[in-house]
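Morning!

As promised:
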Amino acid sequence: MSGATVAQPADSAPIYHKAGSLRRERRRALIGAYIALAVFVVFFLTPPFHMLMTSLKSSAEIADLSGNPWIVSRPTLENYWALLSQGSYLTHFVNSVMVTVCVVAITMVISTFAAFALARMRFWGSTALATGVFLTYLVPETLLFIPLFQTIGGLGMYNNLWAMVLLYPTLTVPFCTWIMIGYFSSIPKELDEAALIDGANHFQMLWKIFIPVALPGILAATIFAFTVSWAQFLYPLAFLVSSDQMVLTVGIISDLIRGDTFQWGMIMAGALMAALPPLLVYAFLMDYYIAGLTAGATKG
Amino acid sequence: MSSLPPGIPAAIAPPRAGTLQRLARRRSTLAFLMTLPLIALIGSLVIYPFFYALYLSMLNKRMTKFVGIDNFTFLLGRETFQMVIWQSVIFAVGAVVAKAIIGFVLAHVLHALPDKGQRKWRGMLLVPWVIPPAISTLAWWWLFDPSYSAFNWALAGIGAGPVPWLGEANWARFAVILVNVWYGAPFFMIMYLAALKSVPDQLYEASAIDGATGLQKLRYVTLPMMRNIISITVLFSLIVTFANFDIVRILTNGGPQDSTHVFGTYAFQVGIQSGDIPLGAAVSLFMFPMLAVFAIFILRGVSRRSKEMAG
């Protein structure tokens, strides 16, 4: 836009010759931009593409070293069929869904109440607690999995799927609370006052005003909780050992790799199907999520 | 109570001192109850395990005797662990620098596009970050396979010899960084893109009138405006990358000869697989000082940012 206004006088006055090349320069910059984008899109999409190609190949075609690994010559769905009809892939899928649904529900309840209290009801230590919540978000799971291994063992929950439901909220709740504090604080105080005058109590205020108004933030938090629980790898790897308790991230590796035999076709098919739910969620709700994530960085 | 509209009868308006105080007290009790689940969660599954880790790390292998800081000194004297420290630093710094640069370039490139095309390109560029890393790393593992590597097949096509992607120490170090960059660069891209969009256009127009070149605009307008977000994103990514587990664990499992172990994977191998819980806890705890320093800087950046926005 600014380029266009500068370039205008160039047509009339030859003295602005340099400015005349601005439009061409912009054009060239745009072509450069598309080339850079294309290069990175290829880099970014190569692994998923190769994943798809491999998943469509038969074991014989994968093992055939003379063929082209990048394209499939006789596409078949046998890997997908094998995964869905035998073995415990479906169990892992159901386990993943179950854990994720529970964790998302628990996370949203805990963090909505906490964020409401921290954003609106000042009380002793509330600012310190808000800071603490943010710091907890920065604690990586690799720091605490060994003491948790002991604790989970002590509770008798080793190799129990429900231990995941207990542990994942530590990874999701802090960030969800944090972004919802941001959204709740941005709601004008006049709304609360209006609700109070109308005789609403705090719960009604939260339910009828804060949640509907901050819905984009709540959606962003939900997507975050979903992403984290679906992708979590360390806790299930450390705490689950039997196949019937496993979730997708560890189940694919443990079931399809037996000693030295890698069933690559099935591994890739399983991985692709496991990646599908997040891909779908993002395809439809990407804008909400990005708005929620970046609001924290650009607004406060 | 002067804010009450005049139409409200005096009987409904709450009486002043005593009741108001009680109300405030009730309000704060309610607030405390609302935050109680959060406090319980953080207390029992984050703070308690942290102190428990400190305690565990000071026991002997069979957890029968208190040995003080012996585990820590033992680790520091071990050559493997010194390598783990170096590899963690190289891995985190190398990957974060590459991610930051790629993210910055991509954000600029996307920002220059017309709005209509931007969404489509952004969607495609976000794919690596959307797939769970434990899943996408499987695809990379397969691409790096010693005998079926599709990369080596392509390299053979242009006459280059096969690369031992995961078989040779330096190539393996490169491979884990490459996969981490692939996974993390889109995150930098969207953070920087949001930051770029928040820079007011007038600043660029003003600098254009003053005759600034593109490079000068970048140096004197874009970078100062984005400085805080750049530092927050870099520090945050340093923490996450430093504490990475999934990628290294699946791709190399620390090999060849422990050359790609980072703190997380080494702690897992020592603590869970070899069953030396105290030593594993000690390995993890070595991360803490560095994480704490990064976290303090992030907190400073975040609070400075909120003050700027408020002021």
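The longest helix of chain A spans residues 17-55.

Hope this helps with the figure draft.
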